[in-house]
Target: DUF4976 domain-containing protein
Amino acid sequence: MKTIFCITGLAIQGLAMSAQAQTGKPNIVVIMTDQQRADLCGREGFPLEVTPFVDRLAQENVWFNKAYTVMPASSPARCSMFTGRFPSATHVRTNHNIPDISYQQDLVGVLKENGYKTALVGKNHAYLKPADFDFWSEYGHWGKHKKTTPAEKETARFLNQQARGQWLEPSPISLEEQHPTKIVNEALAWIKQQKENPFFVWVSFPEPHNPYQVCEPYYSMFSPDKLPVLKTSRKDLAKKGEKYRILAQLEDASCPNLEQDMPRIRANYIGMIRLIDDQIKRLIESLKASGQYENTLFVVLSDHGDYWGEYGLIRKGAGLSESLARIPMVWAGYHIKNQPAPMDGHVSIADLFPTFCSAIGAEIPTGVQGRSLWPMLTGKAYPKEEFSSMVVQQGFGGADVGLDASLTFEQEGALTPGKIAHFDELNTWTQSGTSRMIRKDDWKLVMNHYGNGELYNLKKDPSEIHNLFGEKKYSKIQTELLTRLLAWELRLQDPLPLPQRRYHFKQNPFNYLHPEH
Model:
């Protein structure tokens, strides 16, 4: 097995003078997981050792415990990360309308203008194409896109034909052939070749997204009977609303033994995260060994979360619960000023692009709605009010599609009859309509287009079961959150196209609206 992991820092010590030293610009490594919820980590008090390396990286650098996706779905989130624009502006509000994307300049374009070599190794699921990058090696949930070895072909066969949804036994895919291992191998090999230009690499793991499969030793690392007890169950679905109940019906139709299988699925899920954590460690420690760490800006995050058994559900789909909307986010390396405690700011996946612009000395393009975190990350002054709240969007519009609709799961395409765990939770029912969420400190408000609201105190009610909306006792905080949500909605109106004559569009260098003092 040692020969499999031979691409170490020692193997790339022969690099010429670092690209950063020659250009003054840092390398950038975006490490992204798919469907990893934020709270299953030691730095947030989770009792099992699921992310020991990233926990240490976070405490030695900067991390957020109020970081959010823009929408709990892969394509909307990933498109926002590369454009800095929210789904209401990109027009990518589902996984199926990527071609509708709207933006003026994106991260890849800015990087190319600044002399970067670029690479994707892993999952895309955005609007990006191989021609946009200098190197492209794409992986999906069910195998590598261009399979060249017998092992890669066998992995794809297994994932497509046997483990499409979940695999409750130890995975026959070896550690050497698991996607995270192969992705890190390829990323390190590509980095080794970069000698003159600064580089950007998107290391994009398709896991811990379903199919929930994991090999030994990770399969046995977390015993199903020793997992923390869930605080919610199917009994709470009545309080969560119709979309949650519809999702439960879909899951039961596809996974008839879901309640029985849930402990093993949950154990597999955190086993997958631990496997990824070990591979992130290998990646970053290799760059430390080669002397590139200090000249490289790292961010570790996910595109959205997973219920992980909350409300008796798996995957994602209905609602804007913290389990889906909040994401892990850790910044490390180049110019990052250590703060062991979580940063006291509400931030978004849309903030990555403007932050990278600041880090490399580029202007933030017009049309970008995210804000630069660079002053915050580097210990400089920044307006606290700018990061005092954050919003998340959901829905493709129209009226809600309810339980009484004549459309069936099979007709819609949300359910593949006769096949276990073949279902699409992001469907007509769960995604219909429009919802908005705002988080401020311990409080959270969700509103939909019918004027129905949810108000939760996350400190007292982290599972979001006790809806306080409309209660007189909380009218002041409800009004404050409604006011802030309206302000965010106005802020996120698409500024493009800018006025072409006479009017002068004002934009702060860090894309802040609030003054610094």
User: Anything to note?
Assistant: The chain has a mean pLDDT of 94. The radius of gyration is 22 Å. The domain at 9-384 is CATH 3.40.720.10 (Alkaline Phosphatase, subunit A).
